[in-house]
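Example record

The entry below shows one chain as it appears in the dataset: sequence first, then structure tokens.
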Amino acid sequence: MALHIQMSDEALKQLKRSALMNKLVSFGVVSGLLLLFGGILYFTILIIAGEVPAEFIAYTPPSGDGPPSNNPVSRELSARTATTNPTVTPSVIVAQNAVGAVAAPVSIDTTGDLSFDDMDVSVDLDTSLGEGLGSEGGGMGQGGGNGSALQGEFYDLKLTRSAAPSALTKGVVNKQKNPKTNKMEFVFNTNSGDFRHRAAEKLNEFFTRNNKNAFSGFYKAPLTLNNPNFCLPSIDANVATQSFGVDDVCKPSGLVCVYHGRVRAPKTGKFRFVGMGDDFLGVRFDKKIVLEAGYILPSLWKKDDPNSFEVHNFVQSDPDRLKKHWQAVKDKKLRDFEGYEQDSSYPNLEVWNKGVGGLTIGKTFEVKEGEVYPIQVVVAEVPGGQFGFVLLIEDVTKGPGKKGDPKRYDIFRTNFAVPTVESLRKTLKENKVNMPDSTAKQMPKFNEDSPIWTVTE
């Protein structure tokens, strides 16, 4: 990954002045030493040697003035000129009764310009910076300290806080013996239209209407995970229950994961999130909904219409209805979807292109460099089966990029981690989940040198 350092004009001028001063000092010191050596040689050989025998004594500096220790010193991310004043005090031999020589004034033309080619500049990069922000993570996230990352919680809409069937499962739950464990277990028909409709209502209540207590009565995983980026190509939904360590309590359906934190904008400009979630991906930035994507769209939920919120029903019943759906979005006929677009220019995302028309491009928002903004990322899987998501971000300060350009979008990330097939395999393996080759082929393209939206306390 490339790390770009750019100085201000004032800092560059100061750096040039410092370099010039160092050169003058260096030249003066060298000239003085040469004259001093010549004077000592002259007085020692021609004058002192002929009159008074030279007597030499050894001088050893006190221990407090000795050379610096080799203890490691933490380095800062900075650019500085090389010093010409070493602090090491060596043991020396001096001639007694020697007379010091005075260096003659040196005149150097300083009217010319300095260039970096003529300057001895060292850039000391702090290698611990990556360790501080973190350089790992992805998928569903990791437990423990993970540097700069959003904190995620897991909720199971099928279960109450005591792990009993919730009200949302009324009429779609049975109890039967598990042949593998020989124990009685709850079995849920989460593909039921009734359950999907009730789950979408809760998503609408939490995400669209911003009711923070909407999930308070449901089972919550004891473990929280820290996630610096969101990229998980379509995979078995058990990746969520196993990653959060609740696969012995929860079945991989009717689940919601909420990630939250405060991020610092890396630059001033206009941005928009781009992403996809199976079944749902939503982003609330600076207390505003800026992205809602997936097969389920909570903001379109209607109490009297069981299919109002499910985009994939347009495909299943009539392939042409998907186009009609997004045309209604462009025509601003759908609530809370003004300004949203679709991008199906990534052929390897075929499963999402066919299902919902590709990635969803969210609403534009503005930020100022260094300012801190609250963010909430929500992903959900309702009926179970395949599960996945990806969250990208586009800098549109100078206008949108070209469709199909693999570097058009940045990966939204909060530390140095970049999701790759290899890194995802490693993270998933730690959670006892295997990533099949069919999933690896669905990795979206993005700019790997993406800016970092650092998480703050």
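Notes for this example: The chain has two domains: 9-56+75-126, 136-456. Residues 135 and 416 are 5 Å apart (CA to CA).
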